[in-house]
Amino acid sequence: MPDAPTSSRREFVKVAGSAALGASLFPADALGQTPARRRYAIVGTGDRGSGMWGRDLVNRYPDLLEFVGLCDKNPKRAAVARDLIGVPNCPTFTNFDEMIEKAKPDLLMVTTVDGFHHEYIVKGLDRGIDVMTEKPMTTDEAKCQAVLDAEKRNHRKIVVTFNYRYAPAHQQMKEILLSNEIGKIVSVDFSWYLDVIHGADYFRRWHRLRENSGSLLVHKASHHFDLMNWWLGADPVEVSGSGGLQIYGRNGAFRGANCRTCPHTAGCRFYYDMTKDKRRMDLYARCEDVDGYYRDGCVFREDVNIFDTMSAIVKYSNGTTMNYALNAYMPYEGYRVAFNGEKGRLDVQSFERQPWDVADSHEIYVTKSFGKRTKVPMPKMTEGHGGGDDRMRDLIFKKTDAPEYMKLPDSRAGAMSCLTGIAIRNSIDQKKIVRLADLVKL
Ligand SMILES: NC(=O)c1ccc[n+]([C@@H]2O[C@H](COP(=O)([O-])OP(=O)(O)OC[C@H]3O[C@@H](n4cnc5c(N)ncnc54)[C@H](O)[C@@H]3O)[C@@H](O)[C@H]2O)c1
Predict the structure, then answer these.
(1) Would you give the DSSP letter of residue 213?
(2) In whole angstroms, what is the distance from residue 306 CA to residue 429 CA?
(3) Taking the CB of residue 15, how many other CB atoms lie within 10 A of it?
(4) Any idea what DSSP says for residue 258?
(5) Close Cβ partners of 106 (under 8 Å, ≥ 6 residues apart)
(6) How far is Cα 278 from Cα 296, in angstroms, rounded to an integer?
(7) Is 111 in the pocket of ligand 1 (CB under 6 A)?
(8) pTM value?
(9) Beta-sheet pairing, 333-341 with 344-353
(10) Mean pLDDT, to the nearest integer, of 260-264?
(11) Residue 112 pLDDT > 80, yes or no?
(12) How far does residue 372's CA lie from ligand 1's centre (Å)?
């Protein structure tokens, strides 16, 4: 039988629930009124820009935002996105500066390829615009420093949209750790499994090149490192890593440019038929004559220069050590994490996709040293990263009440998470331990 949360945990949540929000993109004026509609612009109008930060916002917050500009280096994709979002009168741009001049947004969402985030975050801040950015905040230490400096120079705050924090299971884990039930956390085992569907998809797309994604240690693992920094309430201090490319890229016995034109589809385990997905055909295939970008690119292209097999040891400011692993060719998708505390252990397994039936999306157990194991009841998963997407958007746009520990992630969270991956990547390249303090000045 599942146990109810302990009274100390319930009490904590009640007290913390009255705390103020950490950040709001809709500041009240002197009379306590929030402006009726904000002038909203997006740079990078691909899947995320047109969906989560486009159409979904039109549907959820029709009275709060006015779409004043959509910018993408691919003009066809910007036009397709405008249709998908459903804002026929919103102007589209290929030149960011022109968009800012003409559209005069007061809120900017950055959803480009990761390697360009810094460029638009810095320009937005320098023009006095509130900026939200998708994760990772950026992909190398110099770009990270540029973002932090721009924020300081302009006395502004940015929001990094780490939706994973807002999945109910992840909040539950945070509350268990805050309640001190298992005492001080000495070490953590954290393994993330990307399967042959989702994991392979990174190798089809722009993510396969470090210059775009910073590698999966930055693009994907910045989610994981943000969760861990937040769960532990600590900063990563030093890392050592190892990584390799074992399955994708040059490991393939044959290759083509992309699946739609490939002669090897019958014999390829990773064949992907994009023609069945109308949205992707509109957003990518219809626009590929402009930029040559294939959404269904071959996972075995020889230019793949990211790892598919990664592991690291990360030491934190509170003395915790984490063993971390990320593999991108697993038969199932999800993760396992275990927090080893002085008074017990918190074990979590997440099930996202697997060839067997599961009762719950997460299994969470607390085992007390010299004591019993109890199963923690889980809120049911809903769409969009376990319900995290909606909860985070409501926090941003509707200023819903939330405990202090659920406040919106800021540039520091953005920096510490991407820098963990950047440091591990540097450690692999340079074959040495890397200290985060040597990478940027916070
Ligand atoms: N939080 C999450 O769970 C989550 C999920 C998916 C993607 N993301 C993030 O969202 C962002 C976009 O990812 P996506 O899946 O929508 O990718 P996508 O390829 O669908 O879209 C990226 C868009 O950026 C445009 N672009 C690339 N370089 C540009 C530049 N220099 N200037 C202007 N436009 C440029 C491309 O033309 C494309 O339209 C990424 O940063 C990614 O990490 C986050």
Answers:
(1) H
(2) 12
(3) 11
(4) B
(5) 38, 39, 129, 130
(6) 13
(7) yes
(8) 0.93
(9) antiparallel
(10) 98
(11) yes
(12) 46
